[in-house]
Amino acid sequence: MAGFVPEKGIIPAAMEKATHAIMGHKRDKISDLAQETKDFGPGNGRLTTDYGVKQTTADDWLRVVSDKQIGPALLEDPFARERIHRFDHERIPERVVHARGSGAFGTFRLFESAEDVTCAKVLTDTSRETPIFVRFSTVLGSRGSADTVRDVRGFAVKLYTQEGNWDIVGNNIPVFFIQDAIKFPDVIHAGKPEPHNEVPQAQSAHNNFWDFQYNHTEATHMFMWAMSDRGIPRSYRMMQGFGVNTFTLINAKGERHFVKFLWTPELGVNSLVWDEALKLAGEDPDFHRKDLWEAIENGVYPKWKFGIQTIPEADEHKFDFDILDATKVWPEELVPTRYIGELELNRNPDEFFTQVEQIAFCTSHVVPGIGFSNDPLLQGRNFSYFDTQISRLGVNWQELPINRPVCPVMNFNRDGAMRHTITKGTVNYWPNRFEACPPATHEEGGYLEYAEKIVGMKARARSAKFKEHFNQAQLFWNSMAPHEKKHIIDALSFELDHCEDPVVYGRMVQRLADIDLGLAQTVCEMVGGEKPEKAGRPNHSKRAHGLSQLDFPPAKLSIASRRIAIIVADGYDPVAYAAAYGAISAALAIPLVIGTRRSKVTAAGGSHSVQPHHHLEGFRSVMVDALFIPGGEQSIATLSKSGRALHWIREAFGHLKAIGATGEAVDLVNKAIALPDVTVSSSGDVSESYGVVTLRQIKPESFTEAVQIAKGTSGFL
Ligand code: HDE
Asked: What is the sign of the dihedral through the CA atoms of 677, 683, 685 and 690?
C-alpha cells in the first residue's frame, strides 16, 4: 500500500479488522458476523439496561405502592422508559416491494472457469468458496402477508466475494412487466392494494392490476408467466432464479459479452396447485418460510446450478428482439445456458430482523470483470436500490453486519446517522499529504469501466425492437404442456372473475386474443365479456425449450425433505406403520404422524403406541406432499366414520398427491376417492389410479416414486 503511514494513526478500524481476517485466512461471513453475535443462552449473564446496568426485576415499573394500594407509576424509572422507548421504535419501514421474505446463508462454488468471458475472480477461480446470503420474497404483499399467494418471487443473492459484494437481485421469472424503470411506480401501484380502501392484500386479482396490464402492452409476456405455475411455487427450494436484466462480462483481454445470470434448482421446478395455494394461505401462511427453514435444519441443503447465457458484443443486434429488453427471454435455442457453478444454502439465520430484514441489495453492486448494460430497466434499478436502503436503514446501511463486505473497506465516506466505524487519522479526503487510502490501479484489482462508444440523440424514446410486445407471450404459451395451459386458463379465469369492472375483464379477454384465440375464448366463457371471434394476431406456433417447468426435472429421483403424513387411529397396523415410518425417514423425507388426537394412539394388539405430531383437525392435507395410511380393522373403521379423515384423503387426491395404503386402508381410500363424478380407473378401483399405491394393486411405480413425481398432469380440482 503505497504511502501508507501507520505511525500517523490513519488505519481505519474496519481495515484493521479486515486485515486481521485476511491474515487469519478466514474470509467467511459467519465468522465475520461472530463479532456482533451474542448468545443469550442460560448462564451467559444477567439482565441489564442498554447502558449496561444490571436490573433486579423486569416485571414492575417503579411506582408508589403499599400492601393495600397501588399508586401512580414514576416517570423517573429509567429501566421502564428505556424498554418502552426501545419497543416503540422496533419497526423500520418495510420494503416498498418484496416486503415479505425469508432467507439463509450458504456457499457459492465454481466448477468451471468462465475466463473466456470474464476476469471476475468469483467466476474464474474454481478453488474458491464464496459465502452468500439469499433472500426469497413475494412482491406485492406486506410483511405479514401469506407465502403462497399468486405472485412473482424474489430471488436475491448477495455474494460476499474477496473483491467486494456482488448482488444478483433476481426473480423466479426471467422477464419483467416493464422495459423502462420510469414505469416502476405505476406497475407497483397498480398491483398493490387499491388506494381508496387498501384492498386486496397480496393479490393481483383486482381491477387496477388488470387495467394496467391491458393498457401497458409490454407487460403481456410477463403476466403470462405470473399466471403460470411459476406464480405458485411449491417451495423456494424448487424454483429457478433469474437476474432478468442484461449485464456484461469483461475478460482479461478487455473483450465484452452481454450476459444473463440464472439459477436452476437441483430438486426440479415444482409448483402447488391453485386450490392448495389458496388453502395454505389460510392454514399455514408461513408455508414457504418454514419449508426452507425445516430443510436446512434437517441437513437437506437446497442447491441450484448457476448458469450464464452470453452474447458477444458484436452480436448485439443479430436477434429479432432487443437483448437489452427485460420483457424478453433469450431462447435456449439461440443462446444456450452454460452451467458453471453451484449455490448451496446450508445455514439458517440466527436472528430474523438483523439478518433477513436488514439485508439490503443493490443491482449496482458488481465486482471487477462484471458490468452493466444499457438495459433501461437495469439503469433505473441501479439508481433505486441504494436510495431505498437509505430510506429503510439509513445512510450507513452498508456497515450493518449482514451487509458489510468480507474484504477491506477503506474510503473517505464519513459520518451520517448511526455511523459505527471509528476511523483514526487526521485526513478525510483524497488526495492527501500522507497518500493515505489511494485509489487502486487495475492491476491492483481496481474496478475498470468498459470504454463503450455510444452514439445517439438525447430523447425520451426506446429503440425500434422494444415496440414488439406479443411474440414471446405466444412463444411462452405455445411452449406450455397441456396441463400448464389449463392452469394458465384457470388462473386468468380466477383473476378476471375478481375484477368487477366489465371494462377491465372485457378488454383483457380481447388482449388474450393477441396471444391465442383459443385461450381468449375459453377465458371469456368463464369470466364474461364479448367473445373474440378472431385472433388479434396470428399465432406464430413457435416453441422454445426452457420455458415449461417440465424442462427442469430433478437432477435425481429423491423424496428427501418431502413431508409425508402417516394417518393413524387406535388399532392401526403396527408393522405397516413401522415399515413406512422407517422407509420415509431413511429416505430423509419427513414422516408426520397425524392422529385422530394428539394424545397417545395405540396400535392393534396394544403392544405399540405413538404420540402423533398433529391431529387431523389441527393439520391439513395441504401441508404435506403425500400420505400413507396403514391398515388395521379398528383404526380404519374409525377413520371411515370421520368426515375429516375422508376429506384429508379426498383433498390430497385432488391435489395430485401420492397416496399409499395397506390392508383395510385400501378400502378407506376407495371410499374417500370414488366419488360419483370421478372416474379413477376403468374398474372403478382407485388403487389403479395414477399416484395411488396400495398393496392390493402392485404397480410398476413405487410409493416413493409417486411421491417424487409429486404433481401429475391432471386432477379433479
Ligand atoms: Fe426491485 N426493488 N425494482 N426488481 N427487487 C426492490 O429494493 C426496483 C425489479 C427485486 O430481498 C426495492 O431493497 C425498481 C426487477 C427483488 O431485499 C426497490 C425496478 C427485479 C427485491 C426496488 C425494479 C427486481 C427488490 C425495494 C424497476 C427482478 C427484494 C426494497 C426498474 C430482476 C430484495 C429494496 C430483497 C426490491 C426497485 C424491478 C427484484 C424499491 C425501480 C426487474 C428480489 O429498490
From this structure: negative
Residue environment code for 395-428, b if the CB has 16+ CB neighbours within 10 A, otherwise e = ebbbbbbbbbbbbbbbeeeeeeeeeeeebebeee
Q: Is the peptide bond before 431 cis (omega within 30 degrees of 0)?
A: yes
Q: How many CB atoms lie within 10 A of CB 209?
A: 25
By most ligand atoms within 8 Å of CB, the mutation choice from 222, 384, 391 for ligand 1 is: 384
CB 250 within 8 A of CB 371: yes
What span, in angstroms and rounded, lies between the C-alpha atoms of 100 and 370?
29
Element (H, E) at 108: strand 101-110
Residue 3, pLDDT score: 33
Domains held by the chain: number: 4
Sign of CA dihedral 183, 185, 187, 190: negative
Please say whether the beta carbons of 173 and 225 come within 8 A: yes
> Are 106 and 136 contained in the same domain?
yes
Same domain, 309 and 378: yes
pLDDT at position 706 is 72
Which residue, among 182, 96, 185, has the nearest Cα to 376 in the 3D structure? 182
Is a pLDDT exceeding 60 seen at residue 104?
yes
* Domain that includes residue 587, residue range: 563-708
Distance from C-alpha of 132 to C-alpha of 344, rounded to nearest angstrom: 9
Pocket of ligand 1 (CB under 6 A): 95-98, 101, 135, 137, 154, 156, 169-171, 176, 181, 184, 244, 326, 360-361, 377, 380-381, 384-385, 388-389
What is the arithmetic mean of pLDDT over 71-83?
A: 95
- Determine the 3-state secondary structure of 595 from DSSP: strand
Q: How far is the CA of 70 from the centre of ligand 1 (A)?
A: 53
Contact predicate 434/9, CB 8 Å: no
Do 157 and 273 belong to one domain?
yes
pLDDT in tens, 531-552: 999 999 999 999 999 999 999 9
Span 345-370, pLDDT tens digits: 999 999 999 999 999 999 999 999 99
The answer to whether residue 171 is catalytic is yes
Examine the domain organization and report whether 244 and 107 are in the same domain.
Answer: yes
Q: Whose CA is nearest to atom 16 of ligand 1?
A: 154
Q: What is the pTM of this model?
A: 0.93
Average pLDDT over the chain, rounded to whole? 92
